[in-house]
Design goal:
The protein has 161 residues and is an alpha/beta fold. Helix content is 45%, strand content 22%. The protein has helices spanning 16-28, 42-47, 64-77, 97-110, 128-132, 139-158, and strands at 6-10, 32-36, 50-58, 61-62, 85-92, 113-114, 119-122. Strands 1, 2, 3, 4, 5, 6 and 7 form a 7-stranded mixed beta sheet that branches. Helix 1 packs across helix 6 (139-158). The longest helix has 20 residues, at 139-158. The protein starts with 5 loop residues before the first strand and ends with a helix. It comes from Qipengyuania aquimaris.
């Protein structure tokens, strides 16, 4: 039986996605379980009522560590989490659509229900140096992540989702 908690599963190479995930967790408060993608286990997915997936787009796809999390957990939870809420935040150099499509396809297979518009945060990194550099996320995007975390946690707690 799922609690009313939100699982925030994240991966970050340069700090942007981690900062966004931490902001979302701050907004969600005690209503969340925040874990790095490589640490998320089957029981974490089963015990939470909703999910926020936060990752960078790398080479037009979700990051490899986020993909590995989905690969590892897909079949153990398949058929056991239908109808649960999910949302996404993607940190991208430009458009983020490739990563977004991949996560949406996996969520469709799990029969999850999107409950918030996708958030794609363009970091505008286009050169190798910019792409590899540590990122600072503008406050406006961090605020949006906090608001999303709060809204998801409240929606789960109140039974809206």
């Amino acid at each position: 039986m799922a609690t009313r908690k939100l699982l925030i599963a994240w991966h970050s190479r340069t700090g942007a996605s981690e900062a966004l995930a931490r902001a979302a967790a701050q907004g969600a408060g005690d209503g969340c379980l925040m874990k790095a993608a490589e640490e998320v286990e089957t029981e974490d997915v089963l015990s939470c009522a909703g999910y926020l997936f936060v990752c960078p787009e790398n080479l037009a796809t979700m990051s490899g560590m986020m993909k590995e999390m989905f690969d590892r957990l897909y079949y153990p939870v398949l058929g056991r989490i239908e109808g649960r809420a999910y949302a996404t935040i993607i940190a991208a150099g430009s458009d983020g659509e490739g990563a977004q499509r991949q996560i949406d396809r996996i969520a469709m297979g799990w029969r999850l229900k999107r409950v918030a518009e996708q958030v794609i945060v363009p970091m505008h990194a286009q050169t190798p140096e910019e792409i590899l550099a540590r990122k600072t996320v503008p406050e406006g995007w961090l605020s949006e992540a906090r608001e999303m975390g709060a809204a998801l946690a409240e929606g789960l707690e109140s039974g809206i989702f």
